[in-house]
Prior knowledge:
By secondary structure, this protein is α/β, with parallel strands linked by helices. It contains four helices and six strands. Strands 4-3-1-2-5-6 form a six-stranded mixed beta sheet.
Amino acid sequence: MTQLEHTNIGLQFFIQDSMFTITKDVYFCYGHRLMNHPGKCKHLHGHSVKASITVAAKELDVQGMVCDFSDIQQVASKYIDENLDHNFLLHRDDPLCGLLVSANERFLAMDSHPTAENLAEMIFLHMKEKSFSVTQVTLWETTSSNATYYE
């Protein structure tokens, strides 16, 4: 096999496996605490976050798109608004859950700890359930700290 043939085989493989991706950022706020955390995160605090949702396709649709950014925005925002935005997120075993119930306060009791990693997974699984070919979700808890979930 010549070098040119070898290069063309590699190029053909690359072209067959190429993908397009788009990423839509969705912003929201939430409060939480991490029970039994050894540092500051054990105290009640909040975050203004960015969720970067990446969707992929091997081929573009008739409009030349992976999908419309507004479709991602609409589905992700509905889920985030109903479950996460301006909500208090706690582990289901957190003793504060009872207090929040008695005070008629909105909160989400989670089976897992309300970390950036787990929130990224929640958003990912919701988008996947809604038939988006999501490849990853990155949750930016601060401008310098993020967690990513992908399968």
